[in-house]
Write a structure and sequence with these properties.
Chain lengths: 318, 525
């Protein structure tokens, strides 16, 4: 039986279950229905002024937009309009509507023991009915869906992009590559003053994220050259990969006094005069160094590609 | 059938006006088809009157603002990194080669009337969305609202926090300006740091070596505008469904038990208040969008992989991860022909992984420790749970210190100290601050809890010093708030006897029935 509690109060007939309470009816002067405001007239007045302010804000926004718009005025007018209406509505609810408090009974989420048992047995019994003496079918179905589960990942994952292969180990620097600026201009041996710095690329790859290399000119005397790199720094020119070995940001800030390169992302600091050894911060490895040479016409060129992968670490990096 | 129902209900009304008749007709029509006539309990749903319950609502309304402003933005945004020459109204960039994504974002900001306000509102709404979720989550944590039976809803909430952060990151990466492009570069390196599969994942997502083949932009776009928001919307639905089904928690107080909930009914009180809150949230976001500049991408310039600016920082909700990456020591594991970049993997992959795992597991961890498996509908005051409160405060302090560590460079500049000093300070602070905050919180809770609570509010007193130097105290006049003026809670009345000529003389039909209802008593005003 539908208990139909929402209908009427005066049909409280005997056929109703005992648990059915008569419908709560409140008199108009029940204190729970009284507004919370102490001074209702006063509250009504200031709520009204907020509503009027809101309307004015909306109208002012419309006018601003009509006149060609201006971000600050648009923000101010419509913002004030919306906030005013918001305050009016919230205050209406808080001060002029029934102050309450009202109560609602809460029922346990837990079902009766019988209901729960029936639910469990419905699942288990019918489940067993499905599989009863059909073990082979079940296993075959499991195998089939298992295969589907694997092959469905092929287009969903494998099609997304190429395999890494050796892509992370390579740059476009080759033996004899000129060092060119972002505008493609080749660098000559007397282009940079001592202490100068410039970002260079191999020709045809200007602006490339992987090839970006920072070229500096230090005074030859102050170098700590690593063994095997004696010929890499002609005339005090030294070139390092500009990709930070920590998280790959361009190592873009150069402190000329201390001759250090700083990555502005996570503040790794590299010592230019000591093979770009990290002296501070989270970077684990020196910036890879590009071996330089000066050709017969006086142009700076690479002796060869980087001798190790540039940039941050990854699993396949040995 | 429907006619008899309609007749019966209208017949019982003394003075049915137009509004009554229209409502009766509409409800009758719907009831015959959907059975809405028995849905009164939804209108009666009680919302506790405590300010802290509006935090979740702020998150909800920020999301609505995000969807609405987001739809506006999609009408103009071009998710492509293809480079074009900029010809728009912003003079300093005219003639420069920029991505279509960047150019269209400039167009929204300068070419579309009202566009800049909407764009900035969208960005502010995202920041407020994540912030409201985080503070809402703290409220749930410190009051123990996550306990049985609400563990599932806690987990849905944690998922929402995670998705909000992810979608925020995707969103601010879309304009492809210098700062967000650098953020993407860092994200690539973070994916790359995962052992075994990292390089595969990075290549699959970006289509190659960073910055890839231009595929990441449309992919981020569809994730940002469809996939993630759809999941968020569905989870918000689940969140609210569970909330309605389990009903709200409430703080201890007069008439409040484990088996009821006390407050204001959905219709009309809560509806008016929450609609007001919706307008206020929208209005404040609109004010922010119009008046407070955020993410001025035209100042950063378009993304060029070899360029960088000073003070590169993500939006605030990624700050804890950025800070963790900054203060992490440079521990890279190399061996057996492989590299594990722990300096990135630990702070940017494992740390957030552990964080969210702990968040998910917390209701179960606490139940395991306290052996408390009972149903809780009454909230804890944080001071009576000093250990949980201290742990929570320590956790908040920990993440806040990491957040502060995301501006080490700015601080070094501001305080004129070396970066090294700031870095080492933070490495120490990130451990010390949570310990101190935890211990202090514990002590404060203990002392607060030792003060007995009386049901009587404190009365104001007047203390006078006599000429002899002694003090006399007398009670002051009763002022608002000096007396508990809260009534005993009653069930929401389905009917209100609006005919005051009948009810005010104390002899009406309504008042007779009132006497029979437990909890309702007739009081003359």
């Amino acid at each position: 039986m539908n208990k139909d509690t929402g209908k009427m109060t005066d049909t409280n007939d005997a056929s109703m279950p005992e648990s059915d309470m008569p419908l709560p009816v409140a008199a108009f002067n029940d204190p729970h229905l009284a507004p919370a405001a102490k001074n209702v007239k006063h509250t009504e007045r200031w709520i009204a002024s907020f509503i009027i302010l809101g309307a004015l804000g909306f109208a002012a926004y419309g006018a601003t937009y009509w006149q060609g718009g201006q971000p600050q005025v648009e923000g101010l007018t419509l913002g004030i309009g919306l906030v005013s209406i918001g305050i009016a509505l919230a205050a209406w609810g808080k001060y002029l509507l029934p102050r309450g408090p009202f109560v609602e009974e809460r029922h346990s989420m837990t079902s009766s023991k019988v209901e729960r048992e029936q639910m469990v047995s419905a699942i288990t019994d019918r489940g067993k009915l499905v599989m009863h003496r059909r073990g082979f079918l079940g296993k075959a179905l499991g195998a089939a869906t298992g295969v589907l589960g694997i092959v469905i990942t092929f287009p969903l994952i494998r099609s997304l992009g190429p395999l890494p292969k050796l892509g992370l180990d390579k740059t476009n620097w080759k033996k004899g590559s000129y060092l060119v600026t972002i505008h493609g201009r080749k660098i000559k041996a007397d282009d940079l003053e001592v202490g100068g710095i410039i970002t260079v690329f191999p020709p045809g790859y200007e602006g490339n994220a992987v090839d970006q290399t920072v070229l500096l000119r230090a005074s030859t005397a102050s170098f700590t050259t690593k063994p095997g790199r004696e010929t890499w720094t002609p005339n005090g020119y030294v070139a390092y990969s500009k990709v930070c070995t920590h998280a790959g940001c361009p190592v873009g800030l150069y402190q000329e006094q201390t001759q250090q390169l700083l990555c502005p992302c996570h503040q790794s600091l590299f010592d230019v005069l000591d093979g770009a050894q990290p002296v501070f911060g989270p970077a684990p490895r020196p910036l890879p160094q590009l071996a330089l040479t000066i050709d017969s016409e006086g142009y700076l060129r690479a002796q060869g590609p980087y001798d190790q992968p540039i940039g941050p670490g990854f699993w396949e990096r040995s | 059938m429907s006619q008899t129902t309609a007749q019966a209900s209208t017949g019982s009304r003394r003075s049915a006006n137009k509004f009554d008749r229209a409502t009766d007709k509409a409800i009758g029509w719907l009831d015959d088809r959907l059975g809405v006539g028995s849905g009164r309990s939804l209108l009666d749903k009680i919302f506790p009157d405590h300010w802290s319950f509006l935090l979740g609502e702020i998150a909800l309304y920020s999301f609505i603002v995000l969807v609405l402003t987001g739809i506006f933005l999609t009408l103009y945004f071009v998710p492509s990194t293809k480079e074009i020459i900029y010809h728009g109204p912003y003079a300093p960039l005219r003639g420069k080669l920029v991505s279509e994504a960047y150019a269209s974002t400039l167009n929204i900001s300068f070419g579309v009337r009202g566009g800049l306000v909407i764009r900035q509102m969208h960005h502010w709404a995202a920041d407020v969305f994540v912030g409201a979720i985080a503070i809402h989550m703290m409220r749930i944590f410190f009051t123990g609202a996550f306990r049985k039976p609400r563990e599932l809803n806690w987990m849905v909430g944690v998922t929402l926090l995670m998705l909000a952060i992810v979608n925020g990151f995707l969103g601010y990466s879309l304009p492809y300006d210098l700062v967000s492009g650098t953020g993407l570069r860092i994200a690539y390196s973070i994916i790359l740091s995962i052992p075994l599969v990292g390089s595969y994942l990075a290549f699959f997502l970006f289509g190659g070596v960073f910055p890839g083949n231009g595929i990441i932009e449309p992919r981020m776009f569809i994730l940002h505008v469809l996939v993630v928001p759809a999941i968020i919307a569905a989870l918000i639905g689940a969140h609210l469904f569970m909330l309605v089904r389990q009903k709200h928690t409430h703080f201890p107080g007069k008439g409040r038990t484990e088996n009821n909930v006390v407050g204001s009914p959905l219709y009309p009180t809560f509806m008016a208040k929450t609609l007001g809150l919706f307008f206020i949230v929208t209005g404040v976001l609109w004010l922010l969008g119009g008046l407070v500049q955020i993410n001025p991408i035209w100042q950063f310039g378009p993304y060029e992989p070899y360029k960088i600016t000073y003070a590169v920082q993500p939006d605030w909700y990624m700050g804890w991860l950025d800070g963790a990456m900054r203060i992490m020591p440079s521990w890279e594991f190399t061996g057996f022909g492989h590299t594990i970049p722990l300096e990135v993997l630990l702070p940017a992959v494992l740390f957030p992984g552990i964080t969210f795992t702990l968040f998910y597991a917390w209701p179960f961890i606490e139940a395991k420790i306290t052996h408390d498996h009972a149903v809780h509908n009454i909230l804890d005051f944080p001071r009576y749970r000093p250990k949980r409160t201290a742990l929570g405060a320590a956790g908040v302090a920990f993440y806040f210190t990491l957040f502060a560590a995301s501006s080490t460079d700015v601080m070094a500049n501001f305080f004129q100290v070396s970066l090294n000093t700031v870095l080492w300070s933070f490495r120490i602070l990130v451990i010390a601050v949570p310990i101190v905050v935890g211990l202090v919180t514990y002590q404060i809770c203990k002392e607060l809890a030792s003060v007995p609570i009386s049901d009587e509010p404190k009365r104001s007193v007047i203390i006078t010093r006599t000429d002899e130097g002694s003090y006399e105290m007398e009670e002051a006049e009763i002022r608002p708030g000096d007396e508990i003026d809260e009534l005993s809670p009653i069930p929401v009345p389905a009917k209100i006897n609006l005919d005051d000529s009948v009810s005010s003389d104390g002899d009406g039909t309504g008042s007779d029935i009132l006497e029979d209802v437990p909890g309702i008593r007739r009081v003359t005003r």
